[in-house]
Structure formats: C-alpha cells, structure tokens
Design goal:
5 strands; 248 residues; 12 helices; 5-stranded parallel sheet; alpha/beta
C-alpha cells in the first residue's frame, strides 16, 4: 500500500495541531486580581486584622486595611476599591472624625464612606450624613448586615440603622428634649442623662430606651467626657445642679 504525499501532509498537520493544543493547555493562565471590595481604616491593629479577615471571608473579595487616612490617601489614586470603612470611633460627633471625613471627601479619588461606630444615636447618624457619609453601621449589628450595608453603599445607596430611627420616636427621648441640658447633648444622650439623674441602672436604661447595654455604656462615657465627670454619680450630681440653676 502506497502512502501519498497528501496523506502524509495531513497527518503532519494533525500532529502539529495536537502539539499546539497541548502547549496552550499547559501554559499557566494569567492571574486574576480581584478588585478590593472595601478599604478599612482602623488605628487599632487587632481590630483592623479581625475586620479585614472577617469581611474578606464574608464578601468573597479582597479587603485592604490601613491604620490612618494618610496611608490610604498616598495610594488611593492607583488602588481600585469600592467603599471606605472608617472605624475606631465611639460616635460620629468627634471633631477628629469630622476632619477625617473631610479629608476623604477632598481626595482625588473619592469613594463612598461608611462609619463603623459603637454609638447608635439618631443625632450621630444625621451628623455623619450631613458630613457626606453614605452609611452608618453601629457595632451591635451582625457581620452579615454590615456586609449588605456596604454593598448597598457601593451600589449608590445610603444605609441608616433602623434602631436609631425607632429611637427618634421614643417617648423618653421626646421628653428629654425639654430638659435644660438639651443644648449640651444629643437627644439620645439627654435621655440617658435623665435616666442617670433618676438613678436607673444600665440594664433599665437599655430596656426603656430600646438600646443595647453596650450602647448605653458608650453614651455614659461620652456624657462623662462632656461634663468632665469622673463617674456616673458625679454626672447625676452635676445634672441636678444644672436643673436647679435652670429653675432659679
């Protein structure tokens, strides 16, 4: 049996095609670098690491973290990301926090900013939103809710915790507006001050104001800071003195 040149050429081409296909299949595929879903700015090392790992596992995207706003601003122009999570503050009324929000807003690459804070107060939330923040996540929310809140902000929405909206309709908070110390505190803090003046325990205050006990403790710390009081007893004494002066 004779083998023609055409048949030989056909076999040769088929062999070349097989080698070419095998060569392509053996080549390493280019690495796909996922776009970071979030940038975390948190000064405390342990909390920063925990937040980074938790969010990375929960959202399925890369998460990068920095200890200061300045560190992020140095690389923000060349670093893709979707949202900034600003953490490390008890409440959104701090002057230092206001400066950080302003600096993030003035960056060449402006990303929507979400606040992670201990306090859940309608006054703090409104204050943060007025500064340009697109989300406010209190630390008493679950990780799943926090992730969904950040996704909402990335998509162009605004997240406000439902708890603070319920608190704004709280009758105790409404009565606190009439107190003489209203100008010094937010509505929620004024309600806590009134409860402290009456000698109520943290658990009772939390129940009546529909708050977490940890949130009540945050409010008390902020109240003590504003009054420069050493303890809750001194807060009650100073508030009673303020009320007496108001009546006079």
């Amino acid at each position: 049996m004779s083998i023609t040149y055409r048949h030989t050429a056909h076999v040769h081409r088929e062999t070349e095609n097989r080698f070419a296909a095998a060569n392509i299949a053996s080549r390493p595929s280019p690495a796909i670098v996922p776009q970071p879903a979030a940038v975390i700015i948190e000064p405390r090392q342990l909390i920063r690491d925990c937040l980074t790992r938790a969010l990375r596992a929960a959202c399925g995207h890369d998460v990068i973290a920095f200890s200061t706003v300045d560190e992020w601003l140095k690389v923000c122009e060349h670093t893709p990301a979707g949202v900034v999570l600003l953490s490390g503050f008890e409440a959104a009324g701090d002057e230092e926090l206001s400066q950080k929000i302003h600096r993030l807003a003035q960056a060449k690459k402006r990303l929507p900013t979400v606040i992670l804070a201990d306090a859940e107060d309608i006054g703090h939330v409104v204050n943060a939103l007025n500064k340009g923040v697109k989300g406010y996540i209190p630390t008493n929310l679950s990780l799943d809710v926090a992730v969904e809140a950040m996704r909402l902000v990335r998509a162009g929405g605004v997240f406000v915790p439902a708890g603070c909206l319920r608190g704004s309709r709280d009758p105790l908070a409404s009565r606190a507006v009439k107190s003489p110390w209203t100008t010094m505190f937010t509505v929620r803090q004024a309600a806590v001050v009134e409860a402290l003046r009456q000698g109520k325990a943290n658990k009772t205050i939390a129940y009546e104001l529909q708050l977490q006990e940890s949130t009540v403790k945050v409010h008390i710390r902020n109240i003590m800071k504003k009054l420069k009081a050493k303890n809750r007893t001194e807060v009650a004494y100073m508030v009673a003195k303020m009320q007496n002066n108001e009546k006079i």
